[in-house]
Amino acid sequence: MANVYHGLGNKSKGFTLIELVMVMVLIGILAVAIIPRFANRNSFDARGYFDQSISLLRYAQKLAVAQRRDVFVNIHAPSATICLSYVADTSCSDLTNAAINPADQTKIYKPAPAGVVSFANSLSFSFSALGKPSLANTTLINMTGDGILQTITVERDTGYVH
Questions:
Q1: What is the chain written as a DSSP string?
Q2: What torsion, rounded to 10 degrees, do the Cα atoms 14, 20, 23, 28 define?
Q3: Any idea where the domains of the chain sit in the sequence?
Q4: Cα–Cα distance between 93 and 95 in angstroms, integer?
Q5: Reported confidence tier of residue 12, pLDDT bands at 50, 70, 90
Q6: Which residues cross the membrane (predicted)?
Q7: Are 75 and 123 in contact (CB under 8 A)?
Q8: Tell me, which fold does domain 42-154 have in CATH?
Q9: Do residues 129 and 152 lie in contact, with contact meaning Cβ atoms separated by under 8 Å?
Q10: Cα(143)–Cα(98) distance, rounded to whole angstroms?
Q11: What pLDDT, on the 0 to 100 scale, is given for residue 74?
Q12: 37-84 tens-digit pLDDT
């Protein structure tokens, strides 16, 4: 009868000690590099609020064009809050004239995560029905989040937000 070859033969199945040690070392390196990033969420929260602020400003411009009326962007620096309304209100306290979010029918009022973001100053400006801001010059909106200064720019002539 002929010998039948069964694949691995006498070789054992499994991992070598070197492979196991290398995997454990790699897991340790990744744990040291990645876990501290998830322990402190302030930088993630600050960047998220910065991106949401840009989106709110762009939405205000589009809302003004769609509804053919002025839409005000109100930034209240002490509470780090942005709200959209149909009247100028830098304190964001008059929610009776606030713009409505069509997705969930709530007022567009966005406070920053507590203690994470701060604005340099309060500001109120509007976008006209043509999408043009009421600003005399290109405006820089400075916000500080997790120790990093980030700037939102609203262009004077076009209303472009970046």
A1: -PPPP-SSTTPPPS--HHHHHHHHHHHHHHHHHHHHHHH--HHHHHHHHHHHHHHHHHHHHHHHHHHTS-EEEEEETTTTEEEEESS--TT---GGGB-B-TTT--B-EEEPPTTTEEESS-EEEEE-TTS-BS-SS-EEEEEEETTEEEEEEE-TTT--B-
A2: 150
A3: 42-154
A4: 6
A5: low
A6: 20-39
A7: yes
A8: minor pseudopilin epsh fold (3.55.40)
A9: no
A10: 23
A11: 92
A12: 777 788 888 899 999 999 999 999 999 999 999 999 999 988 889 999
Instruction: Quickly tell me which residue has 């306290």 as its tokens.
Output: 93
- For residue range 107-120, what is the model confidence (pLDDT) as tens digits? 988 998 888 888 88
Please state, in angstroms and rounded to a whole number, the distance separating the CA atoms of residues 74 and 121.
11
